[in-house]
């Protein structure tokens, strides 16, 4: 039953053990993924894709899911009577899922690399854009910092996968040589192992019980309530047999996003709470996401 996620679990374990016995190279590995693996897979998947109304509809659906998640996380946090700093941290970890590094890994394991394109659109035009816009506003609010709109716009425009998306669109009317496409596909295939090994290096088990009740509430909301709401909505309005529906539900069930945790820490929010949520979320996802996969069939 757990066969599809065994490679993911193994990559996580390898990364964690490498950090324990040798050193933590997670920063370098994540940089490689951001500057090489992600742009390569963006080109390999977007270049042959026909951009039409259906893609726009998907972007609207994906953003709606994340915005509803954000509203619910705020209401949950207010119900728990969290302080401003903790509330902002709670909203970040319970809204933004790891739809790229971990999300792509699950989609690749469950459905194959051809369907990563749906996860790619969910991540680039959903998770990432909302994180560096609304997410940064929340982080600045929680840490009582001024909002730097110039930095936000710059982070969007100069994010390597976003740049590669526009390059892919511009080159659509130009015949790309087979060797170039093959090279992009080969580099893109490094995404899953390198990303998961890097996540494994980031795992910290020493703070596993820090503010566990708040972490538990965030994980229940992010990894169970939201994907179940999406599942029910899709069952009513769409066809659950469509692979894009399944990949959307899987993406909605992702654990807290690594980049969101990093930005929350840099922004002065509750560091141990954010890291704890990331660690526990990744470990639980091995079973919870697999459960969604087998339920969907």
Give the number of domains. 1
Gross morphology: globular
- From the 3D coordinates, which CATH architecture would you assign? Up-down Bundle
Q: Tally of extended strands?
A: 0
Give the C-level CATH assignment.
Answer: Mainly Alpha
Short description:
This protein has helices spanning about 5-20, 25-45, 55-80, 85-95, 100-110, 115-140, 150-155, 160-170, 180-190, 190-200, 210-235, 245-250, 260-265, 270-295. With about 300 residues, it is an all-alpha fold.
Characterization of the model:
The protein is mainly α and 297 residues long. The protein has a single domain, classed as Na+/H+ antiporter like fold (Up-down Bundle). It has 14 helices and no strands. The chain has helices at residues 6-21, 26-46, 53-79, 84-95, 101-111, 116-142, 149-157, 160-170, 178-188, 191-202, 212-237, 243-252, 258-266, 271-296. α3 (53-79) runs parallel beside α6 and α4 (84-95) runs parallel beside α14 (271-296). The longest helix is centred in the N-terminal third of the chain and has 27 residues, at 53-79.
Please supply descriptive tags for the structure shown above.
297 residues, mainly alpha, Na+/H+ antiporter like fold, 14 helices
Could you outline the blueprint of secondary structure elements for this entry?
Blueprint: H1 6-21, H2 26-46, H3 53-79, H4 84-95, H5 101-111, H6 116-142, H7 149-157, H8 160-170, H9 178-188, H10 191-202, H11 212-237, H12 243-252, H13 258-266, H14 271-296
Helix pairs in contact: 1-10, 2-8, 2-9, 2-10, 3-4, 3-6, 3-11, 4-6, 4-11, 4-14, 5-10, 5-12, 6-7, 6-12, 11-12, 11-14, 13-14
């Amino acid at each position: 039953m757990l066969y599809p996620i065994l490679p993911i679990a193994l990559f996580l374990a390898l990364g964690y053990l490498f950090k324990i016995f040798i050193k933590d190279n997670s920063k370098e590995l994540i940089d490689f993924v951001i500057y090489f693996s992600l742009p390569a897979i963006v080109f390999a998947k977007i270049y042959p894709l026909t951009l039409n109304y259906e893609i726009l509809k998907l972007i609207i659906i994906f953003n709606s899911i994340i915005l509803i998640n954000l509203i619910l996380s705020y209401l949950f946090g207010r119900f728990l009577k969290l302080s401003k700093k903790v509330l902002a941290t709670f909203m970040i970890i319970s809204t933004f899922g790891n739809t790229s590094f971990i999300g792509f890994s699950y989609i690749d394991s469950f459905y194959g690399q051809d369907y990563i394109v749906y996860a790619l659109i969910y991540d680039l035009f959903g998770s990432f854009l909302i994180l560096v816009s609304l997410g940064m506003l929340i982080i600045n609010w929680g840490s009582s910092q001024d909002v730097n709109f110039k930095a936000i716009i710059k982070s969007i425009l100069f994010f390597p996968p976003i740049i590669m998306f526009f390059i892919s669109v511009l080159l659509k009317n130009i015949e790309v040589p087979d060797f170039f496409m093959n090279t992009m596909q080969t580099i893109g295939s490094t995404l899953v192992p390198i990303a998961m090994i890097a996540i494994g290096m980031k795992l910290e088990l020493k703070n596993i019980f820090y503010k566990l009740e708040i972490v538990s509430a965030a994980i229940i909301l992010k990894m169970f309530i939201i994907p179940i709401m999406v599942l029910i909505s899709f069952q009513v309005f769409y066809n659950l047999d469509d692979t894009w529906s399944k990949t959307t539900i899987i993406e909605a069930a992702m654990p807290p996003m690594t980049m969101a945790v990093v930005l929350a820490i840099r922004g002065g929010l509750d560091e141990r709470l954010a890291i704890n949520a990331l660690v526990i979320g990744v470990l639980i996802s091995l079973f919870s996401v697999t459960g969604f996969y087998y339920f969907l069939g």
